[in-house]
């Protein structure tokens, strides 16, 4: 990999679960709310960072890479 993962396993799982919930909200309320669009965009971001294990904003904030051990 070209980057060091900076999200622990539990946070990656949590991000994917929240992304699934946000996607459900988006599907149900897509045409009724601007919040549904925002939830859909957030779901994409959460799912990608959760699946990849790297969050660029956490890296900017100074979060250290996760060490396996």
Automatic annotation (TrEMBL):
<keyword id="KW-0472">Membrane</keyword>
<dbReference type="Pfam" id="PF11127">
    <property type="entry name" value="YgaP-like_TM"/>
</dbReference>
<protein>
    <submittedName>
        <fullName>DUF2892 domain-containing protein</fullName>
    </submittedName>
</protein>
<feature type="transmembrane region" description="Helical">
    <location>
        <begin position="34"/>
        <end position="61"/>
    </location>
</feature>
<keyword id="KW-0812">Transmembrane</keyword>
<feature type="domain" description="Inner membrane protein YgaP-like transmembrane">
    <location>
        <begin position="4"/>
        <end position="65"/>
    </location>
</feature>
<feature type="transmembrane region" description="Helical">
    <location>
        <begin position="12"/>
        <end position="28"/>
    </location>
</feature>
<keyword id="KW-1133">Transmembrane helix</keyword>
<dbReference type="InterPro" id="IPR021309">
    <property type="entry name" value="YgaP-like_TM"/>
</dbReference>
């Amino acid at each position: 990999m070209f980057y060091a993962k900076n999200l622990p396993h539990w946070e990656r799982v949590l991000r994917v679960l929240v992304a699934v919930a946000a996607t459900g909200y988006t599907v149900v309320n897509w045409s009724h709310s601007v919040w549904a669009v925002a939830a859909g965009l957030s779901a994409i971001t959460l799912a990608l960072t959760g699946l990849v294990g790297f969050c660029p904003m956490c890296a900017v904030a100074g979060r250290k890479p996760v060490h396996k051990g």
